[in-house]
Design goal:
The complex is a heterodimer of chains A (511) and B (375). In chain A, 33% of the residues lie in helices and 24% in strands. Chain A has 511 residues and is α/β, with parallel strands linked by helices. Chain A has 2 domains: 2-242, 3-Layer(aba) Sandwich (Rossmann fold), CATH 3.40.50.300; 260-504, Rossmann fold. In chain A, helix 14 packs parallel to helix 15. The longest helix of chain A has 19 residues, at 115-133. Chain B is mostly helical. Chain B has a domain at 56-293. In chain B, helix 5 (110-139) packs across helix 6 (143-165) and helix 8 crosses helix 9. Chain B is globular. The N and C termini of chain B lie far apart (46 Å). Classes of the chains: A alpha/beta (511), B mainly alpha (375). The interface between A and B is medium-sized, with 28 and 17 residues. Chain B: It is a multi-pass membrane protein.
Chain lengths: 511, 375
Amino acid sequence: MSAAVEPPAIELVDIDKRFGPVRANDRVNLSVARGTVHGIVGENGAGKSTLMSILYGFYEADGGEIRVDGTPARIRSPADAIRLGIGMVHQHFMLVDSLSVVENVMLGAEGGALLDRGLARARAELDRLAADHGLAVDVDARVGDLPVGLQQRVEILKALYRGADVLILDEPTAVLTPPEAKALFGLLRTLREAGKTVLLITHKLEEIMAVTDRVSVMRRGQMVATLDTAATSPPELAELMVGRKVLLRVDKRPLAAGEPRLAVENLSVVDERDCLRVAEVSFTVRAGEIVGIAGVAGNGQSELMEAIAGMRRPTLGTIALDGTVLTREAHTPHNLRRLGLLHVPEDRLRTGLVPAFPAYESAALGFTDDPAYGRGLLLERGRMIAHLADRMAAYDVRPPDPLLKTSKFSGGNQQKIVLAREIERAPKVLIVGQPTRGVDIGAIEFIHRRLIALRDAGVAVLLVSVELEEIMSLADRILVMCGGRITGERRPEATDERDLGLLMAGVEGRA
Amino acid sequence: MSTPIDLPRWADVILVPALSVAAAFAVAGLVVAGIGEDPFTATRLLIAGSLGSVEGVGFTLYYTTNFIFTGLAVALAYHAGLFNIGGEGQATVAGIGAALVCLYADFLPGVLLIPAGILGAAAFGALWGFVPGYLQARRGSHIVITTIMFNFLAATLIVYLVVNVIGERGVTETRAFARHAVIPYVHEALRALGIAAPTSPLNFTFLLALAAAAGVWALVYRSRLGYAIRTVGANPSAAVYAGISPARMIMVAMTLSGALAGGLAVNELMGVQHRLLLEFTSGYGFVGIAVALMGRAHPAGVIFAALLFGVLYQGGAELAFDMPAITRDMVVVIGGVIVLFAGALEGLFRRLAARLVALGTGFVAARRVRTAEEG
């Protein structure tokens, strides 16, 4: 084949990138042939987005080389990347809602102080692109009025208008409905026919199987495999994504589950845009049991947790604590805390803490009505500080300085502050989201041991995590969520990553 | 992307504002030199006019009183993440409240009438703050827009009331308040104690302003309510998580903010004018924005910034008198430049301050090494 002599469109050699102590890309190699659709899969935090950001010039690699069409290239900004014919479609669109399609497309490439020449050129070019690739869009429509699928098409047009030969798509289907996703895949195939090269980042295995020619798997910053799509299968990819390495099993006593503490019945939740995020979910968590919810991020877990914790109104369904169904009035964060349902939110900086506050104030979030913090209207600073100082010692928070600004602590220590705050209030039910996201290994072990200790003490724990390993080692029962539904329930001893990976991808597993 | 510059606390609180003020004075000095006057003489006159005599100090502190109230009003709302630029309107409506009490409840003895007048001002100001707060919290109408509109509404309302309802025939003011509705002047109190003091508009509302600053400090930094307000301002989704209702806190903060702006009406009407008249707010409400920005929304900072603007107002009036080429407008220019440097261009001086701090610590470290080597 002639492809063997032609240099690859993109070649990444030994790319290294560190963020502080985290090695986001560890000597990554990737070669993408011209005129192919190349998929890159991996779990959250595997380094896919970092790698693409380096290719598109958002970050500069600490080491390694980028070759475009066989020529070494230095890409220090997106402008460099565009000049080399690399375009990117971001997960969150970079469009101006109030401008028309043609205005958006020419934005940043207006070609002079007066718009009419640029406009005419953009129109002609858009017509040509529409004819060549079947990329028809009403060029005068206001972008804000277009459905999401068409907005994405505008993003693609923008990249092509700037002369992109290589198109990077970052999780393009995350915001699309299934028919829109299908249309996108059709479009990607047409682009491939026209000789364009497409890099598709995703964690959905069925998309890889549907549209790519080759697929590369990343795990923990490393490139673990590159395969021909035709010669692989979703189970094999799932295995590669998660890794075969021996699980860090935590010592647990055998399950001694008691009364049901938390019962969720037919719960449905819609988001701000009226999209159904949780669909008729039912489960119970009993005292002394950890129920894990596994799933790829963005499949309704966040909304489920927020709904249970009273931060979001469910559209349908009921939530019962200790056998009592919560009325609308009783279902507030404040009242739930009083009833013993505590919540470690999945995003500690956005929700669980106030980064601008000193640590002792963040450590009181949600509990400022505690008389231990002072009587009457005033909070006693000395007591709050002393209280946190005690917990910092017990949880080994470093530095043990209650006056330090919350944002100055490392992720692991921030997480310990949140955990200490919630666990210390003797919960009956604890909802924990992503307890070890962005947390160093030592702290992970500590946090896992704390959660097990709570379970052994009879607390009902609902653990939501995108880390399969964490779910496998902690949970007594595993529920898998995909597309807002629970697609399966497993016992950890009777399942494996492949099985769970398929459920996470929405592929019907064994009964 | 720029990262916020972290500075030691002392630099944050003292060095950065000091650099801003110095730069503002330098620019203002250039303007003064530009119109052919000597900037150093002008500065001397400014300082002497505001702080060089007991009378000058009296006037300066009277202005300071106004600025403390309006600065606190802006600062408190700022802690809830709100930009309340409706101090003018809130103070205007508060003036109506104070006047209604002082004019129609003057059967009360002074010990009750004065507190009642103050409460009337606070309640009316609070109402004028609450409505935009409600519209922001429940309807999503932007607070900046609504408070501007409410300034116009207040200005129109007071004209209607004073001209058509409660005013004296033929003039745009009400009859004078009863003697016992008046907050005493400081110079009168001093004279009663046998101390000779020149006449100035400084009255005991000044102490009320200091007490309000202490109260705001305790509220914001020490109370449960203040914690909730700050949480809403700093991280609304954390507030929802904690069970704090952002909508409620927005309304509470705007209500309190409006009540604080009412202090301006107490000082001007019950302390100095002793009647309700049009346009008594004279732009003090807007200066409060600058005061709060410069004071970094901290009550102590607000007091110092209010004092600085008091000096500018009083010294500027003297300056305009002694150097006719410098009109009062020039003083407004200086104030504007300070606002520009202290508020809008603060980042500029943070970088400079960071460099100075680094230089300073480097110097200290080098000296320590040298001493160690010598020793």
